[in-house]
Design goal:
By secondary structure, this protein is of the alpha+beta class. It has two domains: about 1-95, no CATH class; about 140-188, no CATH class. It contains six helices and five strands. The chain has helices at about 50-65, 90-105, 110-120, 125-135, 145-155, 175-180; strands at about 5-10, 15-20, 40-50, 160-165, 170-175. A three-stranded antiparallel β-sheet has the order 2-1-3, covered by helices on one side. Strands 4-5 form a two-stranded antiparallel sheet. A hairpin with a 5-residue loop joins strand 1 (about 5-10) and strand 2. The relative contact order is 0.08.
Length: about 190
C-alpha cells in the first residue's frame, strides 16, 4: 500500500496528465512523455493505495477526463492507464521510425561500462534462466556475429586458479567450481 495517483496541472489548474507512482515518481522527469510542471502544480490525488487500487483509479480518472490523442478529452496521457501500455495507439509508420532511430543510436563506452558493472555478479533465478533459454531457442546468429564472437574469444586471456571445495575436498578451476561446489556442494 505505497502507491499514489498524481496529476500535473496547467496554469488554469485543469489536469493535463494523470499518473500512478511510488516514492518520488511524480516529481521526476524520467519516464514521462509530458513536461514536468513546477512542484506547485503537481497534486497527489490519493495516497496509500495497493498496486491494483492505483491502477484502477488511474484508468478511471483517465477515462473521466479523456485523452487528447484520441480526441476524447484534455489529458496528454498516451495510454488508458494501468500497467504497461494498454490502449496506446502506435501506427506502423511510428513503429518504423522508432526502429530506425534505435538502429542509429550508439551506446557510449562509458554507458556500456556502467551497464556491465550493474550486471556483474547478478544471479538469475531458475525460472528466469528457463525463460532466457526459451527466448533464445531458434534465434540464429548472423555469420558476422559469429565471427565477432570468435574474435573476442580468441583475444580473451583466461586465468584459471585451482581452488578446493572445503566440503568435499575436490579441486578444480575457479570458473566452474563455484557452480557445483562451495555453497552448492552436495556434501555441504
Amino acid at each position: 500500500m505505497n502507491y499514489y495517483i498524481y496529476e500535473y496541472l496547467r496554469e488554469d489548474h485543469t489536469p493535463y496528465y494523470i499518473g500512478k507512482g511510488q516514492g518520488n515518481r511524480a516529481f521526476t522527469k524520467q519516464g514521462h512523455t509530458v513536461p514536468l510542471p513546477p512542484r506547485s502544480r503537481i497534486r497527489i490525488i490519493k495516497k496509500d493505495l495497493t498496486d491494483i487500487e492505483a491502477r484502477n483509479l488511474e484508468i478511471e480518472l483517465i477515462a473521466k477526463y479523456g485523452r487528447k490523442d484520441l480526441g476524447t478529452g484534455i489529458l496528454r496521457n498516451m495510454t488508458n492507464g494501468g500497467e504497461g501500455s494498454p490502449g496506446r495507439i502506435t501506427t506502423k509508420e511510428t513503429k518504423q521510425k522508432l526502429k530506425e532511430v534505435r538502429k542509429l543510436q550508439k551506446t557510449s563506452e562509458e554507458t556500456r561500462v556502467k551497464m556491465r558493472i550493474s550486471q556483474t555478479g547478478r544471479i538469475h533465478s531458475e525460472e528466469t534462466k528457463k525463460k532466457m533459454a526459451e527466448a533464445a531457442k531458434g534465434r540464429k546468429k548472423s555469420l558476422e556475429t559469429i565471427a565477432k564472437i570468435r574474435e573476442a574469444r580468441a583475444n580473451q586471456v583466461i586465468i584459471t586458479i585451482i581452488i578446493t571445495c572445503p566440503h568435499c575436498g575436490k579441486s578444480g578451476g575457479n570458473r566452474i567450481m563455484p557452480r557445483y561446489h562451495f555453497n552448492n556442494c552436495k556434501k555441504k
